[in-house]
Amino acid sequence: MSAPTPAPGNTDTTGSGAGIRLGLAANLPQFVLLVAVNALVGGMLGQERITLPLLAETVFGLSAHTAALTYILAFGATKAVTNFFAGTWSDRYGRKPVLVAGWLIALPIPAMLAWGPSWGWIITANVLLGISQGLTWSTTIIMKIDLAGPARRGLAMGFNEAAGYLAVAATALATGYLAEQFGLRPAPFLLGAAYAALGLGLSTLIVRETREHARAEAAAHPTGGHHHAELTTRQIAWRTSIGDRSLSAASQAGMVNNLNDALAWGVFPLIFAARGLSVAEIGMLGALYPAIWGLGQMATGWWSDHVGRKHLITAGMLLQAAAIALVALGESFAVWALAQVLLGAGTALVYPTLLAVIGDVAHPAWRARAVGVYRLWRDGGFAVGALLAGIIADIWDLETAVWTVAALTAASGAVVAARMTETHPEKRR
């Protein structure tokens, strides 16, 4: 007798997953807990958004843009690689051990940022931050996909990414205020110390393992799970990176999206400071973009469940390109604030929707590894963005770096339009 096909919403499964239910309502307490944990993960990133670009110039005296952006390169490269392994390890050892390991690695980071005596300490802290974020953020994504089931995958990713980036925004705003009042160090990084302690406690004591939810979904999947479980990691990496049209289009768009974020993180504060804005004003702009991004994802993830994925991603990439160009053209706080709103809106259209594409296409038996490969490409964009923006800014200027990234973002949207097929199970044609 074949396994029953799961219905949308709350789903009881049989076989090896007996008693496990898929769906947001059926798993609401754990889902809400994981949203809170990912907010803390985002806060760890937010503590750096305003302070480190200014520290590089004013405290450590780094005048070359390529050197000053090395912390983003270190963060992005290590996070990208760790994302890849996080998916494999979460399949092999379970989701919760990987999540807890990520928080353990995060514990020394705030102290290193607050009191590190040289730029090498800041780089090392960002290597640890990349490893920690790769383990924690990847795992919370995988766990929410496990719990949500197929019907509400976009909504689940919207809540996950909204929590993380609203926390980035709130922490960036708070650290900008603290830096204005008490200096760039150590006060802004005390928030990160509290986030790390709380995240570790919640993940160790309250979060529950979700790997069996994925196994139950795989067993009830119309194509079964045995054949798909035999795929090697190399085969999955090929499919996600090149072989599958939709997965590969999502991977390149994710990389360019985070290339944009590296620009916003490392270059925008320098442009704003050079034009005479105060640290508090830079903090407001730095918080506005991830705040719109975070809030918007709660709507766009849900929206993609109803209208499909492809067109939202294409529109989001083109909107980001326009917003980045507006930063280069702007001369006032008001214009830059508008650019940050548009950039946040464009990113909100893209971010949870790309993750939903991975969840749509990848079979449950290898979905966690596909998420890891996608996030390898996506967060590799931090490293590419830091190198590209730094080199172009050193050869020409910061504005030229911004225009280059705007052009790349528009091209990425065109690739999605040409290569991706619609992946939502109810919207495919």
Automatic annotation (TrEMBL):
It comes from Planomonospora sphaerica. Keywords: Cell membrane, Membrane, Transmembrane, Transmembrane helix, Transport. It is found in: Cell membrane. GO terms for molecular function: transmembrane transporter activity. The keyword Ribosomal protein does not apply. It is a multi-pass membrane protein. The chain crosses the membrane at residues 28-46, 66-86, 98-115, 121-143, 155-177, 189-207, 312-329, 335-358, 379-396, 402-421. This is MFS transporter. Its main location: membrane. It comes from the Bacteria. One of its GO terms (cellular component) is plasma membrane. Residues 22-424 form the Major facilitator superfamily (MFS) profile domain.
